[in-house]
């Protein structure tokens, strides 16, 4: 069993990704930031990872996917609008318990300062494997995407996956990363 938390600022596409990974509509999606109001939304299922992508060292098949409320406002360094200080803390505690974290960045907004700080804390203090995804690349010209990719690489010290949940570009790459990290399941 592997526990995967999808995190990011509001409106980056967390619930859309949860639905895509599960292959059904389990979480509400909308263009309004602050859509996911339940701080922590868990879903049990099977990771639909093709056999050819499976980690040769084995790893978990079953997944607990955790969709989360947007941690920050998309523009400002303030908490997401559905999160009280207490709920924010509760959410961080839940994220820290996950085996793998997917940090989603909105290609139209860039890397969020609050998320950048949180990323560092999760990576270095809690030693969490983090998959970084730049989502919504269908909305941004390629050269801007490449620039953002370089900024993210430099600031987060890792290679992001470029993804669109409209064209599904990069989705297989994410599945591969999940298959790889599933070996860290407890
Ligand atoms: N063009 C485009 N739109 C996307 C993509 N992924 C998600 N969206 C849209 O972005 C909006 C927000 O998606 P959600 O999945 O609700 O975002 P969220 O991160 O769960 O948002 P909150 O729950 O409010 O924090 C919706 O209108 C989605 O259809 C993408 O790759 N490309
Ligand atoms: Mg949501």
Automatic annotation (TrEMBL):
Entry-linked SUPFAM superfamilies: P-loop containing nucleoside triphosphate hydrolases
InterPro entries: GTP-bd, GTPase_Era-like, P-loop_NTPase, Small_GTP-bd
Domain G: 3-136
Classification via CDD domains: Era_like
GO biological process: ribosomal small subunit assembly
One Pfam assignment: MMR_HSR1
Domain of life: Archaea
Molecular functions per Gene Ontology: GTP binding; ribosomal small subunit binding; rRNA binding
Sequence similarity: Belongs to the TRAFAC class TrmE-Era-EngA-EngB-Septin-like GTPase superfamily. Era GTPase family.
PANTHER family: GTPASE ERA (PTHR42698), GTPASE ERA, MITOCHONDRIAL (PTHR42698:SF1)
Descriptive protein name: GTP-binding protein Era related
Organism listed in the record: Pyrococcus abyssi (strain GE5 / Orsay)
